[in-house]
Specification:
Elements (H helix, E strand, L loop, with lengths): L9 H11 L10 H28 L6 H22 L9 H28 L2 H9 L1 H11 L7 H20 L9 H25 L5 H23 L14 H25 L4 H6 L1 H15 L6 H30 L1
């Protein structure tokens, strides 16, 4: 998932870290363990950043958004079902209600966020898309405020303001160009994608209290894939020249990278890191997605340098840092009690 649950929010990550090893604080992890965790996150988020550039290359010439969603979610579903089969948790109990709710979450949130992400990349640039991905942690926090499951603090408030300012700078200053056919529409799609994925993380957090990551992911990805298939059957909007371009052609190899690395390898590496690093450290790696996408976009000509864009990136990174710092302080104060 932008993919998959790769793009990490502080709230979701805190829950996952607690679930994986609630009794092992990060400062008790060995230096080698922290090194392994940091290397894992560096590689995982590098794949996530390159994923934005790879999708931009494929869209819309080699596949459309509907096709991309079905291919990614179909592969992801298979991957998570295989993981669940290889490493089954015999103590885990999944009710029919759980399965139906997870499928429904996949239909609405997972299909929704992935479709709008791919639509956004069709019209805007990988850097703009990554700006909104980096904002996911802040959006999760805003949703939690509305649900009254979190409280407001000064640091987080400033972080929210910076995040909103960064997003507005991106939306209002980006102009039409040969690399962005309709940046305003594309950025709106990217914002909707970020909101839907953030909502998914909030819902996922509740299920992860009782269920494993692979169980949650296999049902939500399956629901999203089914929604994509139904949407294509109704609209007849299947377009995938990439599948007939030849196994060793550039488009097919790029698609293989998208399916294998950001959707599966990154997931496994993030799991490795979550057992060895504090949630705040893992969350800050979301900024690396933005940096990688920016460097590769400029190198490949998928975006054009803009001082406004640089300001937007700086504001978003500042927003993530402040929200993550506030999360760390809250976690320490709760632990102290």
């Amino acid at each position: 998932m932008n993919n998959q649950p790769q793009s990490a929010s502080p709230t979701s990550l805190s829950q996952k870290t607690t679930q994986n090893n609630p009794a092992a604080p990060a400062n008790k992890v060995s230096k080698n363990g922290r090194l392994v965790g940091n290397v894992s996150m560096f590689v995982a988020k590098t794949f996530s950043g390159l994923n934005e550039n790879a999708l931009k290359y494929l869209l819309p010439t080699w596949m459309n958004a509907f096709t991309g969603v079905v291919l990614r979610l179909g592969f992801g579903s298979l991957f998570f079902w295989v993981i669940g089969w290889i490493k089954p948790d015999k103590t885990e109990k999944t009710s029919m209600r759980d399965r139906l709710l997870l499928l429904l979450t996949g239909i609405i949130c997972v299909f929704g966020y992935m479709y709008t992400l791919l639509m956004g990349l069709t019209y805007t640039t990988p850097i703009s898309s990554s700006i909104f991905i980096a904002l996911q942690g802040t959006v999760v926090y805003i949703i939690c405020l509305f649900l009254r499951t979190d409280r407001l603090s000064f640091g987080r408030l400033i972080g929210i303001i910076l995040g909103i300012a960064g997003a507005l700078v991106c939306v209002l200053t980006q102009k039409h160009s040969d690399v962005a056919s309709n940046p305003l529409l594309g950025n709106i799609y990217c914002f909707i994608s970020t909101f839907l994925f953030s909502a998914y993380l909030v819902i996922e957090k509740k299920f992860l209290k009782r269920l494993s990551n692979s169980t949650v992911s296999k049902y939500t990805f399956t629901g999203g894939c089914l929604a994509g298939i139904v949407a294509i059957l109704i609209s007849g909007n299947w377009f995938a020249p990439v599948l007939t371009s030849g196994v060793f052609s550039t488009p097919f190899l790029v698609l293989a990278f998208v399916l294998v690395f950001p959707s599966s390898i990154s997931y496994l590496l993030t799991d490795v890191a979550l057992k060895r690093l504090p949630a705040t450290v893992v969350g800050l790696y979301a900024n690396w997605i933005l940096i990688v996408a920016a460097i590769v976009s400029y190198a490949l000509g998928q975006d054009k340098f803009s001082w406004w864009q640089l300001l937007s990136i700086a504001l978003i990174i500042g927003s993530v840092f402040l929200v993550e710092s506030a999360e760390a302080k809250d976690h320490k104060s709760k632990t102290a009690k």
